[in-house]
Amino acid sequence: MAKERVKVLIIGSGPAGFTAAIYAARAGMKPVLYQGGQPGGQLTITTDVENYPGYPEGIMGPQMMVDFQKQAERFGTDIRSGMITGVDFSGWPHKVTVDNKQEIEAEAVIISTGASAKWLGLESEQRLNGRGVSACAVCDGFFFRGQDVAIVGAGDTAAEEATYLSKLVNKVYMLVRRDEMRASKIMQQRVMNAPNIEVLWNTETVEVQGDEEVDGVKVKNTETGEERVLPVQGFFVAIGHKPNTDIFKGFIDMDEAGYIKTIPGTSKTNVPGVFATGDAQDKNYRQAVTAAGSGCMGALDAERFIAEKEVEMQEAAV
Predict the structure, then answer these.
(1) What span, in angstroms and rounded, lies between the C-alpha atoms of 275 and 304?
(2) pLDDT digits (tens, 9 = 90+) for 194-234
(3) Which residues form the catalytic set?
């Protein structure tokens, strides 16, 4: 197996990974970034981004990630295609395997692997993703001002996003598979108190309708079998996210959902020299701007770690 030694290895290429790369490259750490299975992260399946500072007219998600990448490359980041297929954080330097055929030793590792939205698994859902179908009400709700939308989910996230949408849109249909919600009592109360949220109990989604964009959703009552079409222009899925962190299990401390635990106020994990940024460690905000901010933190923390290591090694050599 081919071997290589690098100062900073960045795993992932969304806003967190590219921002970490920009800061690390400008600090002269010659970062190597592996893009993973979805280069550019979740923003590459997002259309208009209007809430990221610096783009007064908005920007398409894929174009934003192209801009991020160009900026990282401008300062010398080595951006590569490839999947991380194994890690060994039991010693230092840290060992990472790429595509089962190359081993990289890294003095610092910045994890920016993100999280993936959970979907219902409908063909129509994926076909219309970004054209009326969304997994982020905070990101995309603004585009449906004054229109009718549906949201699927029964937990706190779904209740919170339904309430958020109710302040922007004309009507929200909340589709709940059972006859009760999993959301906390206070979140349920907020849903019930919103005059323009209609909860449809015992309801599952059959199909998202529309040719070029969403114009309705076919739903089915699980008790009666009755089907009907809701005339909506937006369809939001709020059944949870899964952080892309499985490969780090056994080395990195995580919560029960798989989000990486970091020392509050830092990007530091339980393993010295391994840092976590972006949605891989953020289950609360999941925004491009917060991911980018944590990417900056990761690079600065990595720079300080490497500087301290170099001093230790020099002292040990004396």
Answers:
(1) 12
(2) 999 999 999 999 999 999 999 999 999 999 999 999 999 99
(3) 136, 139-140
